[in-house]
Amino acid sequence: MNGPDVAAAVRQLKFRDPTRAERLVRTLARTVAQIDHAPVTVMHVCGSHEQAIAKFGLRAVLPKGLDVIMGPGCPVCITDMPEVDEAVDLAARGARVATYGDMMRVPGTTRSLADVQADGGRVHVVYSVAQAVDLARQTTDEVVFFATGFETTAVATAAVVLGELPPNFSVLSAHKYVPPAMELVAALPDTRIEGFLAAGHAAIITGWKLFEPLAARHSAPVVVAGFEPLDILAALVRLVELVRDRQPVVVNMYPRCVSAEGNLNAQQQLWKVFRLAGGQWRGIAWVPDGNLELRPDWAHVDARVRFGLGARRAGGAGEAATECICGEIMIGRASPTDCSLFGTTCLPEAPVGACMVSSEGTCRIWHQYGGHPNLAGTAR
């Protein structure tokens, strides 16, 4: 993209500060050109980052030599089939299951929570764990909160568990912890990842220093980024500079919200209620320390203990699901458009893979906005 094209593209994308956007785009192009191989590949690990990148068309102004891919940053996408099966089982047994709306249509081995609801099961969509507790207070039925999400939502679950709970309330934890998954992706022998954009909202809790061992161990710089288009462009510029200079360090480009140590009070609550455990991330792998399970002190609110749920493994997932490449997409080996099911058999209204279900899933986002916008007159 030449000089006039950059200016035209920036005008089309309607940045809040077009002058700064144009400057960042030009700096990014110059920096990528100073690296002796192509493409330079970096990964972000947050569905909100992918939403911003796709919705605002940022890939239309990125240099051709830069590949920005999404990693395992959608909590719905990586919730494993057996975990969905557990929630389906509890609803089928007569418990009221409360969960976030994105989880309703995520396929288990044979059924989703939406299927159970259609069959008369009592499944409730809630916007917060507190709302699930309120539901329990309004009934004598058992209410199970199917708790999904990363450390950002796990903190809210922990705060509720530490409070006064009705006796008919329990938690089925499918919470995940992001840093071990980043470690796993970085350690893949054939990985193309040269650096990471870390999610600003998670870093608000954990702090940016948490990523220093990962950066050093894998020689991959980490830049903590906010979520406005200009935040992301600025973070990409800094990340590519670090790749160019071979500096495997952590840089915080979201200082208005993120500190070095994070929110210590939130961390205290999180680790008082949860502990790390190995767990399967859907379509990816067994991630050591990737799951957040309730500590034994909280067994009385642990649905797996209360209902005697054992370890379950998914069975056959159907012919179409075996063709789904969500796992390859979430570790950076493929894009949604590489999947033969994308936009044909697999659609938002009829998802085959979890990446098409959630508003934070890469396939759903690309289906809605497109992955690589082609701006008229300014195409890459």
Which terms would index this structure?
single chain; 380 residues; alpha/beta; 4-stranded parallel beta sheet; 16 helices; globular
Explained architecture:
It is a single chain. The protein is α/β, with parallel strands linked by helices and 380 residues long. It is 38% helix and 16% strand. The protein has helices spanning 3-13, 18-33, 47-55, 81-92, 113-118, 129-137, 151-161, 178-187, 200-206, 212-218, 229-244, 264-273, 303-306, 319-323, 326-330, 362-369, and strands at 40-44, 66-70, 96-99, 123-125, 143-149, 169-175, 196-199, 222-225, 250-252, 274-281, 285-294. The strands form 3 sheets. The protein has a 5-stranded parallel β-sheet with strand order 2-1-7-8-9. The chain has a 4-stranded parallel β-sheet with strand order 4-3-5-6, with helices on both faces. It has a two-stranded antiparallel sheet with strand order 10-11. Helix 5 (113-118) links the parallel strand 3 and strand 4. The longest helix is centred in the N-terminal third of the chain and has 16 residues, at 18-33. The model is unreliable at 312-319 (pLDDT under 50).
Topology readout:
Layout: H1 3-13, H2 18-33, E1 40-44, H3 47-55, E2 66-70, H4 81-92, E3 96-99, H5 113-118, E4 123-125, H6 129-137, E5 143-149, H7 151-161, E6 169-175, H8 178-187, E7 196-199, H9 200-206, H10 212-218, E8 222-225, H11 229-244, E9 250-252, H12 264-273, E10 274-281, E11 285-294, H13 303-306, H14 319-323, H15 326-330, H16 362-369
Parallel strand pairs: 1-2, 1-7, 3-4, 3-5, 5-6, 7-8, 8-9
Antiparallel strand pairs: 10-11
